[in-house]
Amino acid sequence: MSISEKRRTQLLAGPYTRLLAEHEGAVADFYATLARAVTGAKDFWKDLAKEELMHRIQIDRVADKMVKGEWRFQRPPYQVATVADSIEWLNSRRHHVEQDGISMRDALKAAMEVETNMIEADFFAIVDRDSPTMMEALTSQAINTRSHIKRIQHEARRLKWRIFGGRLKRPKGP
């Protein structure tokens, strides 16, 4: 007995898309926690949290297209445990921030780590890359994530910080 391509996609894609949507939600929750915890940076973190919720909606749209059989699922290059581990780390870190607070520098470092890991692990590579429409959806997610990296870097530069290292030193002299 053979299983239809549509049903196969539904069975395989469901767990991946639910996990990715959960991950985007965990990132949004983490950023919302940072908005409450980091003095003077509420709007910066709230904006990033809102965008992460939009990413979650985009993943839900991709999942709907897969369930309807419009798009084909492709097994991603990463292990599912990678996403699950990231969710666990985000929840643990969020709890830590709620309990102990966090500096802006550490918040920026944590956010940079989250966003960079998503790009490096290619979290959004779950659709068949043969279709230009599907590739556009993947590219959009990756572009948004890279945009977050740039915004985090910009914020660090605005504060005259290196994200990984000490505070920038101004040259001495006239």
Describe what you observe in this structure:
- With 174 residues, the protein is mostly helical.
- It has helices at residues 5-37, 42-67, 80-100, 104-121, 132-158.
Find the structural class using helix and strand composition.
mainly alpha
Oligomeric state of the chains? single chain
Helix content: over 70%
Report the C-alpha radius of gyration, rounded: 18 Å
* Residue share in β-strands: under 5%
Secondary structure tally, helices:
5
Q: What gross morphology would you assign?
A: elongated
Distance between the termini: 82 Å
> What sequence of helices (H) and strands (E) makes up the elements?
HHHHH
- Tell me, rounded to a whole number, the average pLDDT: 79
How many beta-strand runs? 0
Low-confidence regions:
165-174
Give the biggest sheet.
Answer: none
Question: What's this entry about, in short?
Answer:
With 174 residues, this protein is an all-alpha fold.
Secondary structure elements and pairings:
Blueprint: H1 5-37, H2 42-67, H3 80-100, H4 104-121, H5 132-158
Give me some keywords for this one.
mainly alpha; 174 residues; 5 helices; 72% helix
